[in-house]
Amino acid sequence: MKIAMIGAGYVGLVSGACFADFGHSVICVDLDQSKIDALHVGKMPIFEPGLAELVRVNVAASRLSFTTDLASAASDADAIFIAVGTPSRRGDGHADLTYVFQAARDIAAAVTKPTVVVTKSTVPVGTGDEVERILREVAPDIDLTVVSNPEFLREGAAINDFKRPDRIVIGADDERARGVMRDIYRPLYLNQSPLLFTSRRTAELTKYAANAFLATKITFINEMADLCEAVGADVKDVARGIGLDNRIGSKFLHAGPGYGGSCFPKDTLALLKTAEDFETPMRIVEATVQVNDGRKRAMGRKIITAMGGDVRGKTVGLLGLTFKPNTDDMRDAPSLAIVQALLDAGATVRAFDPEGMDVARTMMPDVVYCDGPYAVAEGASAIAIVTEWNEFRALDLARLTGLMVEKRIVDLRNLYDADDMAKLGIEYECVGRPAPR
Ligand code: UDX
């Protein structure tokens, strides 16, 4: 199969590299010349474990290439995937579809034969209809079919998620397109990944439903953590106690500082906009969005309270800034709200993140960036663990707290044990677990 992938961002680049690895011939297109130039010399625009190697192998095997020339890439493809960004539109939270519609226009102007056009970007219900209308308008004589094939991969685990998905959702309203999609995904469904064929609108909505449900699940356990703190119960045990029930499932029940990232915040907002447009309010999702927004700020206050309520002139060290480990992504990261709260209260903030500091520097110039967790601890009255990078799971706590002015750790990811901390004489706060007796 010849595949053109429009957009060499997270989803486009990972999907393109994985399709090439299945044996398809893939050309990734991006408007950004510097990104394409960098890819030509093996430099990845994002940090994603295993991606550089996967790209290298498939470029060497001539199955994967990169270009800024959409017209030539699209003209002889069997399937053209649209994997451009759909950020939140400034002001109203709707998904901004400018790039999707522009890609549709460019594709329509380039194609010369019947082709399947697949939206992989997360797009609101009905976007496929509009893409189809654009294609018909610009290229009325060519048989172009529009399919929705949302992507469920997670940052930091993207290649594994793509190659071993729980399911592949394909929204196609005609048989020829279903056949093309079956051929593209053959290596995966031979590998037992279920292929779920639905209508196009259903597929579009399924992606939002999945993300809103997961965001709600996280938010539920976060509120349960607050209640645990109030009544002296342990949220980790509650999560295990409910998660072993197969109907609930144990994943996405880790209490923490609130969800962030490029997907959950923007997709929950976009879903609410769709619900509003169709006069079908989704109050549970509304509550999720509100609770999560409030939680990020509340985490800053939690640190301040742990420090006795006044942090003026004191130093706080943050371990981890990205919205989750194994990424350099800072979008909607809880650390942004936490840092703001601490700076507003008059604290000095020192921080270290294994991958996120280049981006963080541009977003939070008033933070003192350090080259490791022990450097962060120097002179600090509290350390807060904000992101659960593996290298923060087995810190030398005696060395760390030996560098601090006061021995205090606020563990927003529940990585440590309260009893161990008490033995070391460290004042310890975590999320939703009682202090040791
Ligand atoms: C998410 C979806 O999982 C994925 O299917 C979709 O395609 C894109 O959005 P991603 O944003 O990469 O993926 O991250 P994910 O691992 O889902 O985590 C999202 C946020 O939730 C992070 O901030 C993470 O820290 C938080 N989280 C996750 C929790 O706080 N607790 C949990 O138990 C799980």
UniProtKB/TrEMBL annotation:
Domain spans labelled UDP-glucose/GDP-mannose dehydrogenase C-terminal: 317-418
Active site, per annotation: C263
EC assignment: 1.1.1.22
Keyword Phosphoprotein assigned: no
Superkingdom of the organism of origin: Bacteria
Pathway stated in the Swiss-Prot or TrEMBL entry: Nucleotide-sugar biosynthesis; UDP-alpha-D-glucuronate biosynthesis; UDP-alpha-D-glucuronate from UDP-alpha-D-glucose: step 1/1
Keywords: NAD, Oxidoreductase
Residues binding substrate: F152, L153, R154, E155, K207, F252, L253, H254, A255, G256, G260, K324
PANTHER family membership: UDP-GLUCOSE 6-DEHYDROGENASE TUAD (PTHR43750)
Name this protein carries in UniProt: UDP-glucose 6-dehydrogenase
Highest classification ranks of the organism: Bacteria, Pseudomonadati, Pseudomonadota, Alphaproteobacteria, Sphingomonadales
